[in-house]
Structures are given as C-alpha cells and as structure tokens.
Design a protein that fits this description.
The complex is a heterodimer of chains A (191) and B (214).
Chain A: H1 7-12, E1 16-21, E2 45-49, H2 50-58, E3 62-64, H3 72-80, H4 87-90, H5 94-105, H6 110-130, H7 144-164
Antiparallel strand pairs in A: 1-2, 1-3
Chain B: H1 14-21, E1 25-30, E2 37-39, E3 42-44, E4 53-56, H2 57-65, E5 69-72, H3 79-91, H4 103-113, H5 121-143, E6 153-154, H6 160-180, E7 211-212
Parallel strand pairs in B: 6-7
Antiparallel strand pairs in B: 1-4, 1-5, 2-3
Helix pairs in contact in B: 2-4, 3-5
Classes of the chains: A mainly alpha (191), B alpha+beta (214).
Subunit structure (chain B): Component of the GINS complex.
Keywords (chain B): DNA replication, Nucleus
Subcellular location (chain B): Nucleus
Chain lengths: 191, 214
C-alpha cells in the first residue's frame, strides 16, 4: 500500500481535482489564479490539488466532482478498446487516483470500471512486453503503474536474451577505459 | 544479491542463475591421474584415466578447458529424449514436463565448452530452443487468467531460468490485481430483504508471491 514516503503517492496527490466550495472563505482567492476577488464565495468552482481537496472535504468545506478522467466519455472509449486509450496523456496516475476518489465522490462504479480497464490493458501488455524488443507506441500510453510493470518484464527478458547470446561474465570496469597521460620519470631524482 | 543495480526489479540476474547451476554434478572421463581433491564443498576423485567420476559442473568445465577430461553429456540431453519431451509439451497445454531444474544453463555451458562431447549438437540445441519456446508460451497463456482472487500461482516443473524471467512481472501483476480487485473498492451489490450477515472475506493474507515448483 502506498505510504507517506512513497514518491509516486506524493506525485499522485498533486493531480488537480475540480471542487465546488460549500462555504465562503476570506482571503483565499489566491487559490484560483483566475479569480478577481480576494474572497471565495459559496458555490464557486475551482481546481485544487487532491491533497487539499481531500482535507477540505473532510471538513465539509467543498464537494468534489468526478474528474474528467472518469467521465462518461472516457468510459465509453475504454469500453470500446481499452488498450488504445492514451491514459498517460489524460492522467498518469489513473488507477491510484480512482482508488482514492471512489469513496469521496460516492460513485460506486469506479472500482469495477478501473478493474475492467486494467484487465483489458494487462492482457495486451502481456503479449507486447515479453516479445518485441523495440519500444512501441503502446508503451507511451501507459500510466505510471503500468509502465513499471512493462519495464520489469521488458528488462528481465532483455537480460535473458543478452545472457543467451553469450559473452563473458566478467565486465571491464568503466574506470579502466580512460586513457591517462603518464609522466615517465626520466631518471633517479637528484638529491 | 548482486542485482543491486536495480534492486526493485529482480533478485537474480541470468549470469547469477548460471553460477548457481554450476553446482550440479556431471560425469567426466578424466585423461589424467590424480589423488582425491579435498575441497570445501566435498571431496572429489581419485581420478584415473578413462574411469568415469562425478564432479560439479564448474570443476568439469575448468578441467575441460585445460584439456584434462571429456564431459559426458547427461542422459536427458539426447535427441530421442528431447523429442519425446517436446511432443509431450506440445500435447499438454497446461502442464509442464519434468525437466532438470537448470536445464537451460547446463545445456548452454556444455554447448560452449564441450561441443565435441555432445552428439548431434545442432539438433539438440534447436530442440532445447523449441522446448523453451513452448514452455514460455504456456506461462504466458496461464498468466492471462489471473484475477484479483488469485492468492498464489502454482507452476509445476518450471525451471530456474524461466522462473527468473517471469518473477518481477508476476510479483507486480499480483500486487496490482490485489489492489484493484479488493472488496472494499468494489462495492458488492447488497441483497435486499436478506438479514443474514455475510461472512467477512478476509482476502489474501500473503502480499508476496509464492512460486511452487517441484
């Protein structure tokens, strides 16, 4: 489970979520770069990072709306062909965000939708990662989590192929490759 | 372990698995005469010319490189045996045939150092490649059926190098499926009008993967 120190978790919590304020807030207008007033009125809509939105939601100051990555449009695309959807462009932390958002938004279908998307893409990834050594366009569409999986399979397969074609087990250390100028002493040093 | 260049990915690198495979014993036919060798791992010898003796593979390769012995190819490395195994692999889509645990590494070492001691070496080499391909395809097909309820994956008779290749991928896959398919994320549809409390689903308790092979 992701923890306090997990780098991916920290980066994921920075994703913007659109929220609607339920209360007014004085002096917080600088949260929204496009607002004219220095206060926030009730009912204003803006984008906040997930960590802030989560804390305000616990204090019942905002209500969170479903992000664009989980809208009906994306769902239809994924149902059509999950492997071709460019999740990295939309939201590189698609799955983690979905897991965190699901209890907040109150949408019960997000969990099974994530599972469906992941299973579909996983099947596609299975065949591609172990086979072709070239980097395909498929790998540029994967989220962070999926690309870690993909990289793991790709590198272990590449290591095996490299071992199989032979080669010495001993590698020359990189530091020995540099040519150095050596000053040859001309003779015994004079006292 | 020396896989520290990227400790998250794999515990063993292929040369390390090969190193571990060199502990397997093979038969050699020495060309020299020597008393017993007392080593940390055991005693070997005495060596007499043309009398077979069993030594670990690393010692056999070292002697062969110095021209002091001939390595006898193991029994399973004959064309007939391998043909049988290949046929059996192709016929059973879910099971793996019993093969020596380090067959890939042993065969590679013997091809490299003792190619004159193996009969029909080209045939044997291509048969082993085919066997490896068929088995790996079976592993891939088996992986497609993993779901969130999978607690552990049992692959019987898989060899050391094959396990090493799939290990990082499988661990991550099982972790990902466990995270996404856990019951508290997927809300179960409530049965209306039923008052019986459902038995709690404890879910998988192991968070690490257990490969079971025999």
């Amino acid at each position: 489970m992701p923890g306090y120190y997990d780098m991916d978790d920290i980066l994921m919590e920075d994703e913007p979520i659109s929220v609607v304020f339920q209360v007014g807030a004085h002096g917080c207008g600088l949260l929204d770069p496009g607002s004219e007033t220095i206060d926030i009125e009730k009912g204003m809509k803006m984008d906040l990072p997930y960590w802030l939105a989560h804390q305000l939601h616990l204090r019942q100051a905002v209500s969170i709306s479903v992000p664009a990555s989980f809208s009906q449009k994306t769902r239809k695309e994924i149902q059509a062909d999950a492997a071709c959807v460019d999740l990295k462009g939309r939201c590189p932390y698609f799955y983690e965000l979905g897991c965190k958002i699901a209890p907040l938004v109150g949408d019960k279908t997000i969990g099974s939708f994530l599972l469906y998307a992941f299973t579909d893409r996983y099947k596609e990834m299975l065949s591609k990662s172990h086979g072709a050594p070239a980097v395909t366009r498929f790998s540029s569409r994967l989220t962070k989590e999926e690309s870690q999986l993909f990289e793991a399979a790709r590198s272990s397969m590449a290591a095996f192929k490299k071992w199989r074609t032979g080669g010495s087990r001993l590698e020359k250390a990189a530091i020995l490759g540099r040519k150095r100028k050596r000053t040859v002493p001309l003779g015994p040093s004079s006292p | 372990m020396a896989g520290q260049s990227d400790p998250h990915l794999s515990v063993f690198s292929p040369p390390e698995v090969e190193f571990l495979a060199e502990d397997e014993t093979v038969e050699i036919i020495p060309k020299f005469s020597l008393g017993s060798l007392h080593m940390i791992c055991g005693d070997f010898g005495p060596f007499r010319p043309n009398i077979a003796s069993e030594v670990p593979l690393w010692l056999a390769v070292a002697l062969k490189e110095r021209g002091k012995c001939d390595i006898r190819a193991p029994d399973w490395m004959s064309v007939d045996k391998l043909m049988q195994i290949l046929e059996a692999e192709r016929e059973s889509p879910r099971e793996f045939q019993p093969l020596p645990f380090h067959y890939i590494e042993i065969s590679k070492l013997l091809f490299k150092h003792a190619h004159d001691n193996v009969q029909d070496i080209y045939m044997v080499r291509s048969l082993i490649e085919d066997i490896r391909d068929v088995r790996f395809h079976k592993v891939e097909t088996g992986l497609q059926t993993i779901s969130g309820r999978t607690h552990a994956v049992k692959l019987k008779n898989l060899s050391a190098m094959e396990v090493n290749i799939v290990r990082p991928f499988m661990i991550r896959t099982l972790q990902a499926f466990y995270k996404h398919d856990s019951p508290h994320i997927i809300q179960q549809p409530e049965k209306s009008g039923s008052r019986r409390p459902q038995a709690p689903d404890h879910g998988p308790r192991v968070s690490c993967l257990v490969f079971v092979f025999q």
